Amino acid sequence: MIHLEWQDVDFERQELRVTPKEDWTPKDRESREIDLHPTLAAHLKAWKTVSAQHKNVVPWDRRTHQFSMMFSAFLRRSGIERGSLHSLRHTFASHLAMADVNLLKIARLMGHSNVQTTQIYAHLQPSSLREAVFRLPAIQPGAAVPLNGAAQA
What we know:
Layout: E1 9-10, E2 15-18, E3 32-35, H1 38-51, H2 64-77, H3 85-98, H4 103-110, H5 115-121, H6 126-134
Antiparallel strand pairs: 1-2, 2-3
Helix pairs in contact: 4-5
């Protein structure tokens, strides 16, 4: 987050570019593009009017771990007992998984080369599992129940 530069934000194409920098590289060490949600694009455009004079989207001139510590302190003051910047990755992947986004797509967005790594982040809430069961078609009393996709004779 603190390594994201304004040149990495493409408002015309509605995407962010995660690219290695001189002092930082993504975990997979590869560049990737992530589509910008329209709400985030609007927030970033508004923020750019305030901070466009800075090279980075989040102007931060201290050590990276200090940013993490401040974020954790902010969460505690907000009444959130546990959390970190890394929790945002879990939340991102979890919300995508609960929205039934394919794990391969989530892995690509997260920069994971192995979908098994993505499964660690894809915590499913019980309510989304319940919703999955309720997607099954209703069975009418007395109706024949098809097995393996074919109606019984």
